[in-house]
Design goal:
This protein has helices at 23-39, 42-58, 60-71, 75-100, 134-146, 159-171, 186-193, 207-216, 243-255, 275-288, 308-323, 373-380, 396-405, 442-446, 469-482; strands spanning 3-7, 14-19, 103-106, 112-119, 122-126, 149-153, 179-181, 200-204, 224-228, 233-237, 265-271, 327-330, 345-348, 364-370, 388-392, 410-413, 425-426, 438-439, 447-454. By secondary structure, the chain is an alpha/beta fold. It folds into 2 domains: 3-228 and 441-452, 3-Layer(aba) Sandwich (Aldehyde Dehydrogenase, Chain A, domain 1); 233-420, 3-Layer(aba) Sandwich (Aldehyde Dehydrogenase, Chain A, domain 2), CATH 3.40.309.10. Helix 9 links the parallel strand 10 (233-237) and strand 11. Bound molecules: nicotinamide-adenine-dinucleotide.
């Protein structure tokens, strides 16, 4: 066992200390518990999950405080995250009924057909650090309703939030072994994902890890694997009379949560003729953003990124873009030495010969100028990812064209790239996911359909291709006499 410590990014204060967990013990506990949980009436499972939601709701401030401290996100945003955790319960109950409920329909005369769903068994859930409660919970709640047992590994950067989330299930009376937590980093993740006792794995995190998991599961088609990964998301700004609103939507898309959202806009694609008007408007707005500690008296727009390593990586990426031909519009700086606060960086990469198609997970926006709307769409699709994309401005016809040609799972008009509704399916194409969308469609990967054709009595006959009794008898006697 290795020691694991979590520090508050905004202050450096120690928040949580523990050790890495025994994966074998957690999987064994889940395997022992899941048959009874799967056999329990659906109404019992829903009652426990509802009780979990009520406990989280009652503790909103305490839980939000923990999320804000451990991630560095503003307290108002952490509160929103807790509300999403609570809302997930009702959404998942509805989604289970909608997507995976029982269905019966007539079959051949005297028979009927049934479609029912069964849980997979023991599912691992691997969570990211940016929404350390809401996103793992988005797998856990639907999986529990469907009758699975869970082994959850939170990000090693947010163990305290992970522990608190699981504690609410315990307080809600979840039977022992149904929800288990293992703490640790990638090595613990690997031990869990490779464990023979799993029936599947539900993952939210980076494309890099998702690809490694996909490779690991390639020879195991018997196990369900749901991958929710990152993006290199475009936002197009086209003709609009409201430049200020367009700038607000770009700022929300690119810099909410300090850019640490999978749906954050990484690339601003702008009509060349609007550039000189729009970019100063965008800069003015970014200059006004309050960047501070989560609990600061003046509520900040954004806090720090998760740790110094991430902040260093982002400032280095900004310099790398510059050294390869990017033209800085607004430098990315570290306003507080030693802490991972970043000022948003904006860089014009139009003249770079080769732009890296990677997810830079922080407040860093790359700008590309284009002359025609067709070029804008081509540029938006110029990525291996395909999570979210927005058009700001333009005509209804242009939006139709953008919608029809965008390769992404979330395609918006005059809305930010982020902030997708939990009541809708959520997922991407390309390197953003493996076609198992989460949120409302999580119900689909938490259970498998069993189709039954049923009759009350075994009445049957073979109509075609059967010899009559006499022929069959004479053939048998021919065989006998040949012996
Ligand atoms: P990450 O991939 O580094 O880690 C995610 C989880 O996987 C962690 O629990 C980690 O310990 C574990 N892990 C890492 N390497 C592993 C391995 N080789 N085998 C098994 N487990 C391993 O992701 P992160 O940095 O914590 O989160 C940020 C990323 O998550 C971004 O790329 C972001 O876009 C993505 N994300 C996606 C969504 C979505 O719904 N599509 C939502 C939020 C975040």
């Amino acid at each position: 066992m290795t020691e694991l410590v979590s520090y508050e990014p905004a202050t450096g204060a120690e928040l949580w200390r523990g050790t890495t967990s025994d994966v074998d013990a957690a999987v064994a506990a889940a395997r022992a518990a899941w048959p009874n949980w799967a056999a329990a009436p659906l109404s019992d499972r829903i009652a426990i999950v509802r009780s979990f939601g009520n406990r989280v709701k009652a503790d909103l401030e305490i839980f939000a405080d923990c999320i804000a401290r451990e991630t560095g996100k503003p307290l108002w945003e952490a509160r929103n995250e807790v509300e999403s955790v609570v809302n997930k319960v009702d959404i998942s109950v509805k989604a289970y009924a909608d997507r995976t409920s029982q269905r019966r329909f007539d079959g051949k005369p005297g028979t009927r057909n049934a479609v029912r769903h069964k849980p997979h068994g023991v599912l691992a859930v691997l969570g990211p650090y940016n929404f350390p409660a809401h996103l793992p919970n988005g797998h856990i709640v639907p999986a529990l309703i469907a009758g699975n047992a869970i082994v959850f590994k939170p990000s090693e950067k947010t163990p305290a939030v992970g522990e608190m989330l699981v504690e609410y299930f315990r307080k809600a009376g979840i039977p022992d072994g149904v929800v288990n937590i293992v703490q640790g980093g990638p090595d613990t993740g690997k031990a869990l994902s490779g464990h023979p006792g799993l029936d599947g794995l539900l993952f939210t995190g980076s494309a890099q890890t998702g690809i490694a998991l996909n490779r690991q599961f390639a020879s195991r088609p018997d196990k369900i694997l749901a991958l929710e990964m990152g993006g290199n998301n475009p936002v197009i700004v086209w003709d609009t009379h409201d430049m200020h609103s367009a700038a607000v939507l770009v700022v929300q898309s690119a810099f909410l949560s300090a850019g640490q959202r999978c749906t954050a806009a990484r690339r601003l694609i702008i009509k060349q003729s609007l550039y000189d008007q729009f970019i100063p408007e965008l800069k003015r707005l970014v200059d006004r953003l309050v960047i501070d500690e989560p609990h600061a008296e003046v509520p900040p727009f954004m806090g720090p990124v998760i740790d110094n390593e991430a902040a260093d990586g982002l400032t280095e990426s900004f310099l790398a873009l510059m050294s390869h031909g990017g033209r800085p519009i607004r430098h990315m700086t570290r306003p507080r030495p030693g802490r991972p606060f970043l000022s948003p960086g904006i860089i014009d990469v139009t003249d770079m010969r080769e732009r890296p198609d990677i997810e830079l997970f922080g407040p860093l926006l790359q700008v590309v100028r284009v002359a025609t709307f067709g070029e804008a769409i081509d540029e938006a699709n110029n990525t291996r990812f395909g999570l979210s994309a927005s058009l700001i401005g333009g005509t209804p016809e242009q939006y139709n064209e953008f919608w029809a040609n965008s390769r992404a799972g979330v395609v918006n008009w005059n809305q930010p790239t982020n902030g997708a509704s939990s009541a809708a399916p959520f997922g991407g194409v390309g390197l953003s996911g493996n076609h198992r969308p989460s949120a409302y469609y999580a119900a689909d990967y938490c259970a498998f359909p069993v189709v039954s054709s049923e009759a009350d009595v075994p009445r049957a006959m073979i109509g075609i291709g059967l010899r009559d009794d006499m022929v069959a008898f004479s053939d048998d006697s021919a065989v006998e006499s040949a012996k």
